[in-house]
Specification:
With 250 residues, the protein is mainly beta. The protein is 13% helix and 55% strand. It is built from 1 helix and 13 strands; from the N terminus they run αβββββββββββββ.
Length: 250
Amino acid sequence: MLRAPCWLAMAVVLTEAALSPVAGLAADGMQAGEMQMDDAARFGRILVDQLEWRDGDGAPGGVWEAEGWYGNDDDKLLLRSEGDWPAGAAGSATANSPANAPASGRAELLWDRIVTRWWSVQGGARGDFGAGPGRGWAALGVHGLAPYWIDVEATVYLGSAGTLAARLKTETDLRFTQRLILQPELELNAYSRPDRARDQSAGLADLQAGLRLRYELRRELAPYLGVVWLRREGESSAQWQWLAGVRFWL
């Protein structure tokens, strides 16, 4: 019969053997956590969120929306652009989109600074190009996640002679599967003054609502189909257009 000290020694040995794998996993987890907490590490990415062709009511044409950024978790330099180009065919000319009209859009250079867990403040400059004279703006806005994982971009702009502009964009991803995703989107643009040279109205200049169904062949590449409803101030009716495009990032 074993004495009490023998039983105690056996218990200690068995306890150490049982806890050693757990201790090893905890140590590995701490090392991984230390590696993940390097907030100062810099990285960059280019995302082409929309590269698509639209047709239906109004003139057919292409649309792009892309951004690239470089920085760390707290501070990033952000370059963002969006716009459209008409088909240019003689039969597609309209009062608002003449044949052979150049591409029109905007480009923004912003500094993005995290201020809370889900929101960042953005400031910088915007330039409008394409049809009509170019325009420059100072920009200040916020970007983040609202409840129910709704991505929100809200920006105000100050142009020449005290002209003000505002842009609001919201979107979210509704996942049917890991690869099949429905993306509702809403965007509006408003201006304090009209700009006839760029065919731009005062007030709510345009309102756009879209619905895109994409399939991720892999995370970096996803073709999609969809529909968009567009209403511009000064036009007699809204436009419905179908669309097909691709989303990718590098």
